[in-house]
Each structure stands twice: as structure tokens, then as C-alpha cells.
Amino acid sequence: MNQPLAKSFTNAMRALVGNCSVITAGEGEDISGLLVTSAISLSADPPLLLACVNRASSSWPLLKKYRKFGWSSLGADHQKVAENFSGFGGLKGADRYQGAKWRPAETGALLLEGAPAGFDCALEEMIDRATHSIVIGRVRAIRQNPAAGALVYWNGAFRPLPGA
Asked: Residue 150 in 3-state DSSP?
């Protein structure tokens, strides 16, 4: 793809509203994570989730190594978490987790306390396409907090949606 088309594509994608989710990966001190708007349901039976992860991200090798991950959708009050995991301010690795409470789930993956939905996943498959991998996870456990609202990304900005 030539550069002008790539830039136009990136700008056009900002017109799509994306739910903000954090993918956590790793174990112990060897942890990182990233913010994604590409996480969706793949199947209800069996419960499978899908996210697209840039292979240049610090989380990609941890997903491959540990073969598990946490997926926490972000609530209306989680903009700081979104900024930390999107790399604003230059935070990397374990430093991205600061300022929020995280609890290990069944697989040991970390889930955000108070998230509208948290999914503990075992890595099912990674499919490489262009610069990204399609990461498919089998859900092992679920946590919910429907009153948390949602945080979405649209037109270059985070936007909170209040809970019911």
C-alpha cells in the first residue's frame, strides 16, 4: 500500500467508533499490554474472542510465549488506563498497569477491577496478516460490572459513555 493510501485509510478508520479494551499479557515482572479497538466476539459456542495485535508491539511476543491473555473492556472512568496502555507518556511494560487495580483470573492473566467486562483467555491461534496477528482466544472465565459504562474511541479522541 502506498503512503498516501495508508494515511487516508488510517484517517478513515477514525470515523468508526471502537470500544476500548486492554489486552494484558505475560507473567510476573515480564508483563505488558496494549489498548485495542479491534477486539470482538468470534463465537458464542465455544466462547471465542478475536483481537488484532501489531507484531511490533511489546505485547505480541508475550502472547506467543505465555499463550494466555486478559481482555478488559474499559468503562467510562478508565480514560487514564486507556492512555497508559496506548503508550501516552511513554509508559512501557509493567509501568502501564500503574494507577489501576488488577486481579489475576483463572489462567493467571490480569483483569482490570471494575471493568464492564473482563475475559480470561487461553490463546487458541495467531494468524499473521501484513503487520498484525489475528489473535484468537478461548474464554476460560468472565467478570462483569454492567454499571461501569463504556469508553469508546472516535474521531481521534476517547469518549466516555455512562453506565445504565
From this structure: strand
In angstroms, rounded to a whole number, what is the distance separating the alpha carbons of residues 69 and 32?
Answer: 10
Tens-digit pLDDT profile for residues 84-137: 999 888 999 999 999 999 999 999 999 999 999 999 999 999 999 999 999 999
Q: Is 148 helix (H, G, I), strand (E, B) or coil?
A: helix
Q: What is the CATH number of the domain that holds 108?
A: 2.30.110.10
Q: Is residue 42 part of a domain?
A: yes
Q: Is the pLDDT of residue 1 over 60?
A: no
Q: How far apart are CA 5 and CA 146, in angstroms?
A: 39
Cell of 110: 490480569
- Number of domains composing the chain: 1
Residue 95 belongs to some domain of the structure = yes
What H or E segment, with its residue span, contains residue 7? helix 3-13
Asked whether residue 59 is assigned to any structural domain, the reply reads: yes
Domain encompassing residue 149: 19-155
Q: How many CB atoms lie within 10 A of CB 65?
A: 13
Is 164 inside any structural domain? no
Question: What pTM value is reported for the model?
Answer: 0.92
